[in-house]
Amino acid sequence: MVPWHHTDWVRFHPLDLSQLDLSRLQFATTTIYHFLVVPITIGLSWLVAALLPRWQAAFSP
After folding, report:
1. How far apart are alpha carbons 58 and 61 in whole angstroms?
2. What's the confidence (pLDDT) of residue 27?
3. Which domain does 49 fall in, by range?
């Protein structure tokens, strides 16, 4: 015996998300953003801090 009825798939919609599902999606998005963007930003700030004095020394009158 099949545990679900053959018409149950009609009632399911792919965007039928619960509040818990949306909260998990928001947490995953925030986690991925912080995992990727924050280290890139910190690394670029070190690069700017290292290159700015060289640029100022090269182009100062």
Report:
1. 9
2. 96
3. 20-59
